[in-house]
Structures are given as C-alpha cells and as structure tokens.
Amino acid sequence: MKILVINCGSSSLKYQLIDMENEEVLAKGLVERIGIEGARIKHETIGKDKKTIETPMQDHKKALELVMDSLTNAEYGAIASLDEIGAVGHRVVHGGEDFADSVIIDEKVLKAIEDNVEIAPLHNPPNIMGIKACEKLLPNVKQVAVFDTAFHQTMPEASYIYALPYEYYEKYKVRRYGFHGTSHKYITNRAAEMLGKDVNEVNLITCHLGNGSSICAVENGKSIDTSMGFTPLEGLAMGTRSGDLDPAIIPFIMEKEKLDPAEMNNVLNKKSGVLGISGVSSDFRDLESASEENNHRASLALDIFEKRVRGYIGSYMTELDDVDAIIFTAGVGENSIEMRESICEGLKIFGVEIDKERNNVRGEDKVISSDNSKIKVLVVPTNEELMIARDTQQLVEK
C-alpha cells in the first residue's frame, strides 16, 4: 500500500508518499506561501532531480492539486496514477478529549476537529482545509486523522488538571493536552525495539528538543505527563516561545507596554524563548556559535534551556518507578552533541553517565550512555511521517 502523508499549515503544506511494503519514501515535498504572492512547490521524487515550480495558489485545494500533479508527472513524478494511493494520513494538531488514538475520518470526526478549533485556532483550520481538499481530489480514498494530542490522552487527572476553578475545565475544557504526541509515540516504539523490550513494558523520558520542545514521561509505553499544556506555549524555553513563567507577568507587561491580548500572545509565542533572551537567534546552532565567541546572552539562553530540560527530566524521574532510558530526538536532541552532554552532566545524581565517544553522533539511532550508566541514554531520530503512515495503514487495513 502507498500512503500519502499530509501536514497542512496556515500557508504551507508538507507531504510524503510512502510505500508501506518496505516503508520507503517514494517522494516528498513542500508547498510554501499558499494564498500569498510567490507561492511555490518544492518536489522531490527519490532518485530523480528535485523540481521547484512557482505558480499562484489561492487555497489548499489548489496546492493539493499541484501535489497530485507532481506525484503523477511523467518526468519527475513517483507514480503513474492517483489510483496507486491507497490512503491519506493527515497530521491534525488538536483532537481535544475526543480522540485518544488515530481514527478514520468521517463526518462525525470532522465535526469534532472543527469543534476543537477554538482551542487550536492556528492549527486545526488548515488541517481541516487539507482534509476537505483531499475529499474532493481523492473521493474514494480513505483518510485518517493522526492527532498530536492523542498520545497524551492517557495522562491521569493529576497530570492534566490546572489549579484553577474546576468549572473552567468543565465549561471550557481548560486542561493540559500536550503536543508532539506523534513524535513521542514514534520514539517510544523505536526505543523499545533498541532496548529489546515490549513497548508496553518500557519506562522512558522522551525529550523532543527543537525550535519547539517538549518532554514526556512514559510509563509502560503510555504518556503519564508532559511539559506542554493547554497550548504548545507551556513548558521549556523554546526557540521563540516563553515556556513556563509567572502568570502575573502577563498583565504587568500588557499594562506597561500598552499591549492588547493578541499583541501579548505574539510576544509570548514569537519573540520570547531563547530568541528573546539572546537577542541573537531562535536557532540553537547560531546560539552555540555566538556562545563560543563569548556572547553572554547567547550563553545564558543555552544555560536556561539546559536547566529547564534537566528540571523536567528530574521531576519525571520521581513520577516513574524506574526509568529504562532517556531519549533525545528532534533538531537539537538529535544533532547537538554539546547540549546532550551538558544536560546529562547534570543528571549524575540519578546515575546517568554519558560516553563522550558514543555521544559524538548526529541524527542516527544510538545508545550514547556508558556501560556503567544506571539509566541508558539514546539518540533516536524522530519520524512523524512514518508514524502517521503506520497508523493510517493499520486503520485502513482493519
């Protein structure tokens, strides 16, 4: 079966076509600036030259038409006909409390995704646009929604209820949902394979560290706590997101700077995090370079990020009876040798010991802890697209 994986943003669309017989990526691409001047598609069929096409695209339906044309193009396409696509898997950011797993999309599911727009106003609308566009272009092909929030629906109440009047949860569903669930699920499964254990028997702390970052406590293969909350703003200091802070700071700054709620939200999401601290960049590679040149604020941003990561790992150690492994993934987790080493240096109290030679690795599956370490430390490159494709195949073949 060939599965098309779709990830729709507000003005972008990422896609992969995967042959599930051997889990091989046949083609992938990115559509940028949908509905904006300068729209284009960057398409690559594996084994052929990359192709970039600039053309107006007023909406996601037009963007997906271009994707389908690229996939079937005689010169640079990957398939002869759209009939070869057996199913479509969609990344959907927010499933609220409605979905604890991936699901085949029907009218009821689409309505539930629409109902969750108010708690994910930036993400769910483009996801819905992608689903509706595929319905029109591939009317006889089953579609599956794979939710970023689903993996965390196994959290107990004590992990997801905020210390607010309980009526806000009852009336508005204000609670911790967690995100990056598809990534945390993938690396949980892969880590279990690497450890030679059944996934339902592993206790892990999974660290998805990138421009957006979150940490998850996994007990017997299931999420029991995570750092992101009602939105992806809570938790670690990230590329441009503030992460945890005193809530009273928000009205204080709004009053001092004469900001309205939308402007304050923009500050917290787009101007804070390591960018706000450093004044240099949201890219951790830039911060490491600036730190090496004795830029104090860049060094400070890295120190704060590292401290927050260690803090969450430490707190999750106390939630789990025992921990089989700590897993690093995503852009920073997979590639920053220095950050992994710094984080693990601060975990010696738990018997964590990193092997510097083993840790000299980027973007590949590897155990990087020493033989004497009481808890294994692993690098596992995430593959959310493959996780979406696997869930899609499993549901469709049922």
Describe the structure.
Helix 1 (60-72) crosses helix 3 and helix 6 crosses helix 14. The protein has an eight-stranded mixed sheet with strand order 5-4-3-2-1-6-8-7, with helices on both faces. Strands 11-10-9-12-14-13 form a six-stranded mixed sheet, sandwiched between helices. The protein contains 14 helices and 14 strands. The protein is α/β, with parallel strands linked by helices and 398 residues long. A hairpin with a 2-residue loop joins strand 10 (214-219) and strand 11. The longest helix is centred in the last third of the chain and has 24 residues, at 296-319. The chain has helices at residues 60-72, 107-115, 124-137, 157-160, 166-172, 181-195, 249-257, 261-270, 273-278, 284-292, 296-319, 330-335, 337-345, 384-397; strands at residues 2-8, 13-19, 24-32, 40-45, 51-54, 85-92, 103-104, 142-147, 204-208, 214-219, 222-226, 325-329, 366-367, 376-379. 37% of the residues lie in helices and 19% in strands. Catalyzes the formation of acetyl phosphate from acetate and ATP. Can also catalyze the reverse reaction. Pathway: Metabolic intermediate biosynthesis; acetyl-CoA biosynthesis; acetyl-CoA from acetate: step 1/2. Its cofactor is Mg(2+); Mn(2+). The record marks 180, 241 as: Transition state stabilizer. Pfam families: Acetate_kinase (PF00871).
Defining key terms:
single chain; alpha/beta; 19% strand; 398 residues
